[in-house]
User: Which sequence fits this backbone?
């Protein structure tokens, strides 16, 4: 996090000079006025304004720092393909030991995504959503979930009993809901609290 201390005839002039030095915008910094300007006597003995301007921590940058730190402690070297759109932050990880980060059924990846979400929102005034992937695992997982959804929907219909899926993050639950949105004979809803929230497939009652 960069910080500069700048002087100016006025507080606003000093802030403007600091923003130029940092190459950033007003909403991305915090300003501390160290001294207000003072007028001298007949133009003598005056003092300039002194301000300290610091860049606010950026959730996008802090999330990447966190991911590098965690994976380093796990003994895994990674590269991060990072992008952002509005309040969504996307990180696709790659590396030799990427399977360790994915874990069984993506559980390790989901846990890491949950923690990264907490880190990102610690440094943001508005809610941001982190989507964490590893060598496009999410797309492969999506296909698996769609197949699972249809298989369990058929089970619910055949047994005429509700079927509960394992706890999943919101993105995976959405895949299940969308896969069965047009399926006749069943309905779906989510139940429970994060991170244990799960999808339940309910067969429609025959009249």
Assistant:
């Amino acid at each position: 996090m960069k910080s500069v201390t700048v002087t100016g005839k006025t507080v606003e002039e000093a802030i403007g000079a600091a923003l130029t030095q940092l190459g950033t915008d007003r909403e991305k910094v915090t300003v501390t006025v160290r001294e207000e300007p003072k007028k001298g006597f007949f133009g003598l003995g005056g003092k300039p304004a002194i301000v300290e301007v610091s860049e606010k921590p950026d959730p996008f940058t802090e999330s990447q720092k966190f991911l590098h730190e965690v994976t380093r402690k796990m003994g895994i070297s990674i590269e991060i393909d990072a992008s952002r759109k509005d309040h969504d932050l996307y990180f696709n990880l790659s590396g030799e030991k990427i399977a360790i980060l994915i874990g069984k059924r993506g559980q390790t990846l989901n846990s890491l995504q949950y923690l990264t979400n907490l880190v990102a929102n610690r440094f943001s005034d508005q809610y941001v959503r982190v989507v964490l992937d590893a060598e496009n695992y999410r797309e492969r997982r999506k296909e698996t979930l769609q197949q699972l959804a249809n298989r369990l929907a058929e089970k619910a219909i055949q047994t005429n009993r509700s079927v509960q899926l394992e706890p999943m993050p919101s993105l995976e639950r959405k895949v299940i809901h969308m896969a069965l949105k047009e399926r006749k004979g069943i309905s779906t809803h989510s139940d429970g609290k994060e991170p244990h929230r799960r999808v339940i497939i309910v067969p429609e009652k025959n009249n």
Observations:
- The first strand starts at residue 3 and ends at 8.
